[in-house]
């Protein structure tokens, strides 16, 4: 535990930004681990909220634009997905449009949503805005719950 605390203290907010950015790309990683660790050692909750939200949001925006660069031919060739299946997925994405981007914070499927929204060229402005709202809501709720329970149960690191 002391090693983790040292790493968190050493990397601090820069590490939080990089970690939350990478967690919102196609790399499987939970940004909540970093947020929890920094909250536990007593870092500023508002700074954590701002930096985690920005890092995670920009990671999702990057994944969105990575999807935007994709081509149907590539998906068919590399992933062996039929044109019919792609069209079926596109109709589902089109049904809800940019509102799907609010849910890019969901574990496992959120990154797929980001990639698909870009791939199907759903409105960038609206998607990016809804991604920001979703990420901010997620971290606001998570940090608030942590703060409530840490006060209730006396969690936290005494320096």
Number of domains: 1
The helix fraction, in percent, is over 70%
DSSP strand content: under 5%
Average pLDDT confidence is 85
Structure summary, number of beta strands? 0
Tell me the distance between the termini: 14 Å
Order of helices and strands: HHHHHHH
How many H/I helical runs?
7
Main sheet makeup: none
Overall geometric form: elongated
Unreliable runs: none
Structural class: mainly alpha
* Rounded Rg: 18 Å
Task: Provide structural commentary.
The protein has helices at residues 2-23, 31-40, 45-69, 72-79, 83-96, 110-119, 124-153. The chain is mostly helical and 159 residues long. The chain has one domain (2-153). The two termini are 14 Å apart.
Summarize this structure briefly.
With 159 residues, the chain is mostly helical.
Topology:
Layout: H1 2-23, H2 31-40, H3 45-69, H4 72-79, H5 83-96, H6 110-119, H7 124-153
Keywords:
0% strand; elongated; 159 residues; 75% helix; mainly alpha
